[in-house]
Sequence to fold (158 residues):
Amino acid sequence: MSAEMEQLYQAVILDHSRSRQGSGEIPQDASNTSHQVNPTCGDEVTLAVEVDDDGKITDLVWDGDGCSISQASLSVMSEAVVGMDAKDRQELARTFNKMMHLRGQMPSEDELDVLEDAAAFSGVSKFPARVKCALLGWMALQGALSAAGVDENYTEGE
Fold:
């Protein structure tokens, strides 16, 4: 990865950790929620979703505390998945999960196209202790979707 690209990716992560998309108070009456904790560092998140009959996310809100990686990952994910159809969302989530297990190798050009801003986390895969931070929100999303009756497996096919 070029130094210029690495700086761009770092800027995306810093921007999202400071200006968090989708962050807010979880509604009292939210039924499709998931609370996830990363036991290795203490990062945590509660995420709530509303989905339509086709499994498309119509609303998503999360509330969490943690490092810039976990908070930025939640922000990028939130910005990407609301309104995205279920098939594209699952492809994005699986590609992100796969990227987190590449141990510092870059995803393919096709995978980078799927990831868009989420590609900024490609360097995180070099640091196994941080991979769980980046995946925390995605696991919360999977749990909240399961609570809504939408079953997704982001590790399928690995």
Observations:
- The CA atoms of residues 32 and 148 lie 5 Å apart.
- The beta strands are 33-37, 44-51, 57-65.
- The longest strand covers residues 57-65.
